[in-house]
Amino acid sequence: MPDSAPVLSPPETPAPPRVTGTARHIRLTSHAGGQGAPAIHWAAASPAERGPVIGSTTTRAHRNVIGTHSGSYSVYRALAVAAHALDPHHKPDLTNTAPTDTIGPHPAWSEPGKIVSLDPWGAEIGRHFADGLAAGFDIRPTIAVTKAHVILPEIIEAMQKGRLKADGKVLLPSGGALVTKAAVEPVWHLPGVAARFGCSETELRRVLFEETGGMYPELVTRPDLEVFLPPIGHLTLYIFGKPADLADTSVELTARVHDECNGSDVFGSDICTCRPYLTHAIEECIQGAQRGGVGLCVYYRKEGRALGEVTKFLVYNARKRQEGGDTADQYFARTECVAGVQDMRFQQLMPDVLHWLGIQKIHRLVSMSNMKYDAITGAGIEVGERVNIPDDLIPADARVEIDAKMAAGYFTPGDAPTAEQLRHTKGRGLDA
Ligand SMILES: [Zn+2]
């Protein structure tokens, strides 16, 4: 209870039960209780016209979105409040947190339908929404941009083998590569997301509501709120060279869009090519930046083709225990048996971050995925050369995955494997 609150009870009266927040009743969200919530005009040309995204819970009347900040971490924030470790009314002190590099604005920011899954103005709220902040609105950044050195054993090995050389600017003699990195939280404009997936906004809202167990009632009760902060993972960008060069089509851009695979990316599991592909892309990005170009790796939190790691491990077992063992011809079928689909990454929203960066041309796309290629070119971004993973970087047990993908339409500079060859591409057994 605040110090200034009047004491209404005599000292001997037991203290009221401790409650979270100020209200002791549940505040339903299905009524437009917000007077004074700024309007959001998605894709407006200036931040003033667009309006700030307000997803904080400190002043409910100011909220103009469904959901809250920090993606899936919003649940941990709720736990911190439940544990009385976090004051739910805490407002962030954003002193010195501004981006190290300014991104944009770029024309794509205000082209209708170009960006529907992030807030292009979300990095520099102190500059764009100073008036709103001064008026007491709890506006929070959804994008942060900083600097780092990244040190990877594969890059040090590439230096030892003479493929990479330190230049003191992009790559240090220690093996550290200098990067600008950005974290971007999802901010969905529901009408735009629905259009990308070819469904009606009403249908999208209803399915999001029902398939999350009714997590956000406003999806179906508040059609006036068009922006949703979904409880999903964010994405991270690593930029090698000058961020401003990303938007300059005359500067060679090497880029990879990478979907999370914790088992390989972090722990070095050898059943897939994820980490080798990522480190190969970083090597290509460093080389590109050293040639006077710019490099970009985008890391999307879409673990296990966005099916999640439990499903992924179940599929591994199903693949390796099936009759005949783990063969490339059954690679996609086993995933579909367990998950119902082969893949849930759906690359429809992926190009948004490229538009945020102002990218119009990728000179060298380090990816074999036809789905990523189709999404990028379908979004109007030109792709020059497609760079595949060198054969000697493919782990032995990952041959099943790579052959199956090439046969399914992934890019390969050579011939795709035939159905007969796929039957003979075999992975290790579970006990081997
Ligand atoms: Zn993987």
TrEMBL record:
Keyword GTP-binding appears in the UniProt entry: yes
Record's keyword terms, sorted: GTP-binding, Hydrolase, Nucleotide-binding
Pro residues composition bias: residue spans: 8-17
Cross-referenced InterPro entries: GTP_CH_N, GTP_cyclohydro_II, RibA, RibA-like_sf
Domain spans labelled GTP cyclohydrolase II: 247-387
Region listing for Disordered, in residue ranges: 1-20
Species whose genome carries this gene: Ottowia oryzae
Name of the protein in question: GTP cyclohydrolase II
Superkingdom of this protein's organism: Bacteria
Annotated GO biological process: riboflavin biosynthetic process
Occurrences of domain GTP cyclohydrolase N-terminal (ranges): 25-211
Signal peptide: none
GO molecular function, one term: GTP cyclohydrolase II activity
Transmembrane segments annotated in the record for this chain: none
